[in-house]
Amino acid sequence: MSAGLGVLQPGWTAFEPDEGRAVRAKKLDESLAIYAGLLSGEGTFTYTGEYYSAGPNDFLLPPGAPPRPHPPV
Considering only CA atoms, which of 8, 3, 35 is closest in space to residue 19? Predict the structure, then answer.
């Protein structure tokens, strides 16, 4: 899995304004924390951040035991 801030392409800001690199970096950090938490295999995972939240869920979890502590990011 690759993760990064991304690059704005021409026309993308027609749908929503550019929040800037600092906000995109915070959103990336939160999404990676959620990713790691969901794959931790340690009971019920919940997350509440500035931009994202995740509640208890057993829908579409990966089968079997995930690598410890999680797949390489």
Answer: 8
Q: Are 18 and 10 in contact (CB under 8 A)?
A: no
| 12-37: pLDDT as tens digits | 888 888 888 999 999 999 999 998 88
Instruction: With beta carbons less than 8 A apart as the criterion, state whether 37 and 56 touch.
Output: no
DSSP assignment string, 20-73: -HHHHHHHHHHHHHHHHHHTS-SS---EE-SS-EE----TTPPSSPPPSS-S--
